Amino acid sequence: MAELVYKNIISDLKEKIFAGKFTDMKLPDERSLAEQYNVSRSSVKRALNKMSNEGIIFKKRGSGTFINPLYLKNESIFNYEEGSNLGISDNFRLKGKKPQTKILDFQVIKPTSELQRDLFLSPEDFVYKIIRLRLFEDEPFMIETGYIPIKILPKLSRTQLESSIFAYIQSELNQTASKSFMSIYAEP
């Protein structure tokens, strides 16, 4: 039940954020939100922490909790709920689009020190470097460069890369991907 409570708070706050209910970009304090939703402060705190982790809001010590203006400008076209598939292909299929993938490069490399840190790897680990052109409705959408530790998917091949990696993990390996990290860069 507590699980549902904090998700309901998040859902309602998101609706209010996009409806422009917080004109000063500041959310009410935890105590006020707990009273407003008639829930415990711990439920409110959990909801706010989750929203903060998702980049929707940020907390400023001594000033309160504010809406991240970047979140409002860049409402994601990717909708990830806890326990859902994290893949781009599946997100577009849900919206009725036709995704396609073309492999531009697939190789095994020694990760940079930055990748080792980001992916929690040791210096002797190797990763797949995957560069794919993503198309939706036959139009190029993005060039995606991904890195996957070999120890996570030791038998990954070009065939699996031509469709959703997340679907492959779920259907073929009977596992669930719990995290995916994405950085987006725009180039002319």
UniProtKB/TrEMBL annotation:
InterPro entries: Bact_HTH_transcr_reg (IPR050679), Chorismate_lyase_/UTRA_dom_sf (IPR028978), Tscrpt_reg_HTH_GntR (IPR000524), UTRA (IPR011663), WH-like_DNA-bd_sf (IPR036388), WH_DNA-bd_sf (IPR036390). SUPFAM superfamilies: Chorismate lyase-like, Winged helix' DNA-binding domain. Pfam families: GntR (PF00392), UTRA (PF07702). Keywords: DNA-binding, Transcription, Transcription regulation. GO terms for molecular function: DNA binding; DNA-binding transcription factor activity. Residues 3-70 form the HTH gntR-type domain. Gene3D superfamilies: Chorismate lyase-like, Winged helix-like DNA-binding domain superfamily/Winged helix DNA-binding domain. GO terms for biological process: negative regulation of DNA-templated transcription. It comes from the Bacteria. PANTHER family: GNTR-FAMILY TRANSCRIPTIONAL REGULATOR (PTHR44846:SF17), MANNOSYL-D-GLYCERATE TRANSPORT/METABOLISM SYSTEM REPRESSOR MNGR-RELATED (PTHR44846). This is UTRA domain-containing protein. It comes from Ligilactobacillus salivarius.
